[in-house]
Each structure stands twice: as structure tokens, then as C-alpha cells.
Amino acid sequence: MRAQIATEYFILIGVILVLILPIISLILSEYTSVMSNVNNLNSANWIIDLDSDIKNIKYQGNGSYIVKRYNYPIKLESITVRYQDNNTIMIFNISDYGDIVKIYPFRVNITSGRIVGNIVLNITNVDGDIVISVI
Question: What are the residue ranges spanned by the domains of the chain?
């Protein structure tokens, strides 16, 4: 009698697991997909915010600056700066998303510094060139 009850419980638990495990697996895969998309969008919004601040400082004129705390995005892998004539090409590489390219008709210099996590950037207009430094 006890063996029959134990067997029925094992069968019942097995049926419940067979029904629940695919649902849990689907929920977890959707969660990771949504979190990846959210992180990619946060990276893109960070780039748009930085771009807006660079343009504002440029058009405010020589000597203007802003000191602002940024939350460096998780998915942003690298920032590459290239110069061509008087133009600056900034390439932001976002993992699982691709590259976002910003072109400025003026020079943008990024001083070396550790860019991870919460950072404070000083964006300064020096004789028409934009200098970004990590504080």
C-alpha cells in the first residue's frame, strides 16, 4: 500500500514538473532577452545624452564647461575617436547591438582615464575644441 502511494506521488510530481519546467524556461529566456534589450537601449540613450552635452558646450562658446555624473552603460565596450581634417568621428561599440557613429565638424579630444561605472566627466570648450576628461 505504501509503495503504491509513493509511486503515485512520484508520478504526480513528475507530471507537474513536466508541465511547469517549460513554462519556467520560457519565462527565464524572455527575461534575459528583455534585459539585454534594456541594456542596449540604456547604452544608446547614454550616447545621445553625451552627444547633446558635447553640442551644447560647443555652441555656448570658448571657456564653457559642464561637469556631470554619468552612469557608464554595461554594454558599451569601447569608444574610438578618429580625426579627419577638422572633423571628429566617434565610434561607440555596443555589444550585441553594433556601432553608433557620431560625426562632429570640430575636434573632440578624450583624455585618458578609467571609464567604468559611475563616472564624472568634465566637458570643456577650449578654443573651439571640446575636451572630455574623467574626474
Answer: 2-134
